[in-house]
Design goal:
single chain; about 475 residues; alpha/beta; 4-stranded antiparallel sheet; 13 helices; 11 strands; about 15% strand; globular
């Protein structure tokens, strides 16, 4: 490979600015299309670094794109900056302590994810300018990965139509190329309507929407026996109809998350769950309205892209943690269960290494360990263009995502070092794709061949809009 040292050096040139961005975003956690301040911070950084900026990508107020370069192929580097509800936590501690009671927090490391991706884009921009290479790098700042499917909307509405390949990453406990597995997922709300009545004097006149929700739960539980083994269905009450037990509840609503390993299996399962809801309504003489909230596709493999990423990781080696990083990681590990730590080792198919609190090595590609699968809107990008995702160690081995421990480590030295390392890997992959037309063509040919066998079907209706939230009013 050529120019193996250029991208790391260029990343280091911008590292302090982007670490500052990551820490600022950590300190302003925002959820599910409400990432107005976080998006503004990313937009300001893009402008400061000389990118051509497009705001409100695909009509989403908290999505932004920055482009640099000219001509040639277009490589997208994907970032995120949304937080999670209920995970507020003081940074740097080894015990739970909320910054804001019940507030949100960056329990999945997206403050690092977006800033690391933008850091990679900055390095590639500098490399393009210095070498005169034809090609463009784009940073996509994407909101609402946690349940809002923003990238799926962006793909559906054309934001990636002229992109040739995409690169992204995610913080975690191990450094490795991500396995090409995720669950297709639909989140659908079921709103039941009945008729209220006095629950003691005139119960026969009432038609309980709450009964319908509970009967739907029973029906879905029976459905579990007759669905693909990798499928998952879970739910949460949105509206239990009220707090008065002496009133027959005339309304109730529940949100179902319906997942399957393959997109077509998920779409079929959604229709079956809808029939269960209709049956519950029939039994209770209520009515039901099914409303799509969001949906994402499963991950679409591109072995060529993943091999390029593995080569980049092997060039770089592991994240260069220091003893202070390891000492804090050991304190965090003391708060974890043995099962938490064992689970991370099982995924990479390794026995635990004695004394290893942080992963400072590179895991071999496709380690063949235990499969633990979630869902992500990156899946829809993988169907649109050849895509690879790298996982990079930023936290103690065994740290669960969506936990206070992950939030606590979000501004740590290990988190910063892992973020910078991820930027170097993504920048190197982008450099290879822009400078080696044969490798890019190979990835695109593989993508086209797979797509010819299994065409992409967007899991959301064409007229369904993102569940946007109002922009907060500026303080007086």
């Amino acid at each position: 490979m050529q120019n193996t040292s250029e991208i790391p050096r260029l990343v280091d040139h911008h590292r302090d600015d982007l670490i500052g961005l990551a820490d600022r975003v950590w300190g302003m956690p925002e959820t599910l299309y409400g990432e107005f301040r976080s998006c503004a911070e990313h937009t300001a950084m893009l402008r400061a670094k000389g990118f051509r900026v497009t705001e409100e990508v695909a009509g989403i107020p908290t999505a932004v794109m920055g482009e640099a370069g000219k001509g040639g192929p277009v490589i997208a580097i994907l970032g995120e900056y949304d937080a999670l509800p209920g995970l507020s936590q003081v940074a740097g501690l080894d015990h739970p302590q909320e910054l804001e009671e019940g507030g949100p927090g960056h329990g999945c490391g997206h403050n690092l994810l977006g800033s690391g991706a933008l850091l990679a884009a900055c390095a590639v921009k500098d490399w393009l300018e210095a070498t005169g290479t034809q090609g463009r790098v784009r940073y996509y700042g994407c909101p609402a990965e946690e349940g809002g499917a923003a990238k799926a909307f962006m793909v559906r509405d054309g934001a990636f139509d002229d992109v040739d390949a995409a690169v992204t990453w995610h913080p975690g406990g191990m450094t490795r190329v991500d396995d090409p597995l995720s669950l297709a997922n639909t989140r659908m709300d079921f709103h039941f309507s009945g008729r209220s009545a006095h629950a003691a004097a005139q119960p026969h006149l009432g038609r309980s929407a709450l009964d319908a929700v509970e009967l739907m739960s029973v029906g879905v539980n029976y459905l579990r026996e007759h669905m693909p083994q990798d499928a998952r269905i879970h739910y949460a009450y949105l509206d239990a109809g009220g707090k008065a037990p002496n009133v027959v509840q005339s309304r109730a609503a529940v949100r179902y998350s319906i997942r399957a390993l393959k997109l077509h299996e998920m779409l079929a399962l959604v229709e079956r769950v809808k029939k269960v809801a209709e049956g519950a309504a029939l039994m209770t003489e209520t009515t039901v309205e099914a409303r799509m909230f969001a949906a994402v596709s499963n991950h679409f493999e591109n072995l060529t892209m993943d091999r390029i990423m593995q080569d980049a990781l092997d060039e770089l080696g592991g994240v260069p943690f220091d003893e202070d990083d390891r000492a804090y990681a050991r304190r965090i590990q003391a708060t974890l269960s043995p099962q938490d730590i064992a689970a991370e080792w099982s995924v990479v198919n390794e026995a635990p290494r004695a004394g290893a609190a942080l992963c400072d090595w590179v895991v071999p590609m496709r380690p063949g360990g235990e499969v633990l699968i979630g869902s992500t809107d990156v899946g829809d990008v993988t169907w649109k263009v050849p895509t690879t995702e790298v996982l990079v160690a930023t936290a103690a081995i065994g740290t669960p995502l969506h936990s206070w421990q992950m939030t606590a480590q979000g501004q740590s030295g290990a988190a910063h070092k892992g973020m910078v390392h991820a930027a170097k890997a993504m920048g190197r992959v982008t450099q290879i794709l822009l400078s080696d037309p044969a490798r890019l063509a190979e990835a695109q040919a593989e993508h086209a061949a797979r797509l010819a066998v299994t065409p992409y079907v967007c899991p959301m209706p064409a007229d369904h809009r993102p569940p946007l939230v109002p922009r907060p009013q500026a303080a007086e």
